């Protein structure tokens, strides 16, 4: 890892991801730290940053559209009976410090601030591990602690009245190519089949690359997947799918996602084998 504001993760000496801690972004994009570019070991970029179709999609990170009414996702806010609406309600995630920083990972503290008030304090742990000569794993854990004296609720456009839009939490904006990527789990294939469903792992494959996302804890695996392939390529793990999630004062919400980043197009057997290797018991 090098640099204070944009450390670089390395696997077997090769750079595979840059982490931007203090981005200079417009307020309406909900500024927050992010990983971009993330690449395969062969150097193929598998993330996009602020693409024209969704300027607030920032590589890989944590984004939540509704924390007690504050937008930590960016862009418009979905308002019940009104639809997507421009509101002056955006929050920011502010890097505080690295507790640990090595070439293959880091432990970071962040403050989630909106309307001049700190709502959540986050501990983020990120590690990069070599799996094979053509694949590595990004292990991403985030822990959100309510530092206010009152309960905080986390919602999504789905909980606010927009069916199928339960995004919010870990989110990966993937590489966009001329054709939509293939998406599949161990027993289902296609956006319609896997979106909103629960699966131990979910794979996204493009022209020369594969991403395999896996919940690495029992609690994380209970969160449904948010998937887009036709409109744009993106995968997330939904914190608030059916109902708002309440975090009591002093309580902590924890999720851990491990993503396999591979060269080539994996099939189900290859994806499952790499997940088993990447996710420690």
What does it look like?
The protein has 281 residues and is mainly β. Helices cover 7% and strands 46% of the residues. It has an 8-stranded antiparallel sheet with strand order 8-9-10-11-20-16-15-14. Strands 4, 5, 12, 13, 17, 18 and 19 form a 7-stranded antiparallel sheet that branches. It has a 3-stranded antiparallel sheet with strand order 1-2-3, with no helix packed on it. Strand 1 and strand 2 form a beta hairpin. The protein is globular and about 50 Å long. The two termini are 27 Å apart. The mean pLDDT is 96.
> Multimeric state of these chains?
single chain
Largest sheet entry: 8 strands, antiparallel
- The overall average pLDDT, rounded, is 96
Report helical residue fraction: under 10%
Which spans have pLDDT < 50 for at least 5 consecutive residues?
none
If you compute it from the alpha carbons, what radius of gyration comes out, rounded to the nearest whole angstrom? Answer: 18 Å
Tell me the fraction of residues in β-strands, as a range: over 45%
Structural class: mainly beta
The total of helices stands at: 3
User: Which strand order does the major sheet show?
Assistant: 8-9-10-11-20-16-15-14
Number of strands: 20
**SSE string:** EEEEEEEEEEEEEEHEEHEEEEH
Tell me the distance between the termini.
Answer: 27 Å
Overall form: globular
């Amino acid at each position: 890892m090098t640099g204070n504001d944009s450390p670089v993760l390395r696997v077997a000496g090769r750079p595979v991801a840059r982490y931007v801690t203090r981005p200079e972004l417009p307020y309406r994009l909900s500024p927050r730290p992010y990983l971009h570019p993330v690449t395969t070991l062969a150097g193929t970029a598998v993330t996009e940053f602020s693409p024209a179709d969704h300027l607030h999609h920032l590589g890989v990170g944590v984004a939540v559209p509704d924390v007690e009414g504050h937008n930590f996702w960016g862009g418009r806010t979905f308002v019940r009976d009104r639809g997507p609406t421009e509101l002056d309600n955006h929050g920011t995630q502010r890097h505080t410090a690295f507790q640990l920083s090595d070439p293959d990972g880091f432990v970071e503290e962040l403050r989630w601030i909106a309307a001049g008030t700190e709502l959540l304090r986050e501990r983020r742990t990120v590690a990069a591990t070599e799996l094979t000569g053509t694949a590595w794993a990004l292990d991403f854990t985030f822990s959100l602690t309510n530092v206010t004296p009152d309960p905080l609720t986390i919602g999504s456009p789905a909980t606010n009245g927009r069916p199928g839009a339960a995004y919010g939490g870990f989110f990966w904006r993937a590489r966009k190519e001329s054709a939509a990527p293939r998406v599949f789990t161990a027993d289902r294939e296609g956006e319609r089949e896997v979106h909103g469903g629960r699966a131990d792992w979910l794979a996204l494959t493009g022209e020369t690359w594969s991403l395999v996302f896996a919940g690495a804890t029992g609690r994380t695996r209970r969160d449904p997947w948010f998937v887009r392939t036709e409109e744009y390529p993106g995968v997330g793990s939904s914190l608030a799918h059916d109902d708002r999630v309440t975090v009591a004062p002093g309580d902590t919400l924890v999720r851990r996602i491990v993503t396999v980043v591979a060269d080539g197009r994996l099939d189900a057997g290859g994806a499952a084998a790499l997940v088993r290797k990447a996710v420690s018991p």
